[in-house]
Amino acid sequence: MSKHKMLIVEDDLKLQGMLKDYFMTQDFEVATLDDGQEAVEYILNRQPDIVLLDLMLPVSDGLTICRQTRNHYHGKILMLTASDDDFDHVASLEIGADDFVTKPIKPRVLLARVRSLLRRPNAVAVTDGDELRFDRLILKNKYKRCELNGDFISLTDSEFDLLWLLATHPDTVLSRDKLTQELRGIEFDGFDRTVDNKIVRLRKLLHDSGAPAEKIQTIRGKGYQFVSTAWQ
Fold first, then answer.
1. pTM attached to this predicted model
2. How many Å apart are CA 102 and CA 132, to the nearest integer?
3. In the predicted model, what is the mean pLDDT of residues 162-171?
């Protein structure tokens, strides 16, 4: 299993070093930044699994960084704050942080919070019925656009329509008959392999061609299932 990737954005170098050393001993891959200047670009381009983000930073504060990245960053954000002000805590959560920890930090408590966040699947976000997000997978129906891990995945219209139909029914088994009826407007005759062939193609493009597939699963005798938690 690959290591979880963590970014620590903290200007207290003693605390930053302590946290980096601790999480590396807990089998995390850790990167660090001292201020907010490069944080937005790093988070959006690298897409770490979790960001430990100090609230008060030089150049750009934690709330600003969180606001600028939240819509396009698909991992977890845990705010670190020395403030006991409820306003800061509420503002952090409302702007998109997943959790916060108040300083002074106890590493074992922080580790438990981090692991809890990483076990939690990202909520599916639907915007005006036109956009779906499943962690690192983003689907935009209006433009028939698919993004995975920040990369554009080129799909034909029919491939996108099949993926969209599966994704709008997450964790639900859809039969070949339903998929054929919805996508082609005809009944499944028991022999048509159009849907099956497109599923094979989607799996290849979405890096899900293992045996058995994990993201778009075959449910023997029933159909196919889009697994919402498999896109982390």
1. 0.56
2. 33
3. 90
